[in-house]
Amino acid sequence: MSNPLLEVKDLHVEFDTYDGTAQVINGIDLIVERGETVAIVGESGCGKSVTVKTILGLLPEADISQGEILYKGENLLELSDAKRHARRGKEMSMIMQNPMSAINPVFTVGEQMLDVLKWQGQHRVGITDWVRDKFRSEAELRERAIDMLEQVDISAPERVFESYPVELSGGMRQRVLIAIALLLEPDFLIADEPGTALDVTTEANILELLDDIVEEHDTSVLYITHDLGVAREISDQLNVMYAGEIVETAPTETLFEDPQHPYTRGLLESIPQLSRGIGAGIPGKLPDYTDPPTGCRFADRCPHAETECREVVPHLRRTEPEHAAACHLFEGDPHLDRHQDAVTEFPYIGPPPWQADTDETEVDVR
Ligand SMILES: Nc1ncnc2c1ncn2[C@@H]1O[C@H](COP(=O)(O)OP(=O)(O)OP(=O)(O)O)[C@@H](O)[C@H]1O
Ligand code: NI
């Protein structure tokens, strides 16, 4: 059977807020196979960052009320802080959403890179490695850091090595962050919207770069984005997230060819409006996490919602061998039939946007 690198099972994450308990993550299941790039897409506030920060153990204020996070078969939630920290150092690495907040402004790029090489690497290595690392000369470490800067396509690596973060452009800083994240050759890389702070061309470059590096080092990646186009480009498996739940998951191409959940379909249809943000094409907004709906969290925005949808939580279920959706329209065969009707009457579910384009072209030609 499969032996995934990461398996998140029925994860629930809550926060205490002034308005009460915010039930942000509501039973997420997630699998990252070895060597695979998995994306999570969803609109702003749907819980993407909370999910990845929980995986990395970076949210001490969060209450993880239920669930398991298995990494190489070991439940991270049961590990001591020290052990978790060690995993994070070598095996897992993260590229943060905001490059400026993730880099320390008072140290040069080089100082920060050397720091990672000297200290973080130590947690993971055996004693022989440790002794070897300890006596490895500063010059050697410097060489390795500069080599990594070169690998992320920084053309003047020596100069960047000596620079302070403020002296660099946003794109350059993001490259530096990628270099730092890859320094210890992690098995697992989490990238939380590494492109958001950048202009489109720079983002495309960064994506390409990440893709190359990941292939070369056989790294598994969990990639967070609110951009379906980006997710399509970079991922093998796609998870659509809505209000702290995974509402649909499938191999990326399958998901684009046969989107099933009404939310996914809404997202695909609103691609032309992406400049206004994902989800902007779907009327309504995310529910209040301190007072979430009883049934489907998307029901209020779903023109096809029925009584059952408002009363019963739809769980993620397999609809095809590699495809799962959390929607009552897909529960059992009779419901599948019901879905066939829904396809024609559902306002968001016309033909997918790219097919609509093709049809139009054909009409023009005639
Ligand atoms: N430490 C916290 N305490 C209380 N609520 C939090 C905390 N961190 C996040 N939240 C809430 O959890 C929800 C999900 O936030 P999250 O940052 O995961 O969204 P996101 O999907 O990453 O959005 P974006 O695309 O804007 O980054 C939000 O409503 C947010 O206010
Ligand atoms: Ni986020």
Automatic annotation (TrEMBL):
Q: Which Pfam families match?
A: ABC_tran (PF00005), oligo_HPY (PF08352)
Which SMART domains does the annotation name?
A: AAA (SM00382)
What keywords is this UniProt entry annotated with? ATP-binding, Cell membrane, Ion transport, Membrane, Nucleotide-binding, Translocase, Transport
- A single Gene Ontology CC term: plasma membrane
CDD domains on file:
ABC_NikE_OppD_transporters
Positions of the ABC transporter domain: 6-268
Where is this protein chiefly located?
membrane
| Keyword Membrane set for record | yes
Q: Where does the source fall among the domains of life?
A: Archaea
Q: What topology in the membrane does the UniProt record assign?
A: Peripheral membrane protein
Question: InterPro entries given for it?
Answer: AAA+_ATPase, ABC_Ni/Peptide_Import, ABC_transporter-like_ATP-bd, ABC_transporter-like_CS, Oligopep_ABC_C, P-loop_NTPase
**What NCBIfam families does the record point to?**
oligo_HPY
Q: What is this protein called?
A: Nickel import system ATP-binding protein NikD
Q: Which organism is it from?
A: Natronosalvus hydrolyticus
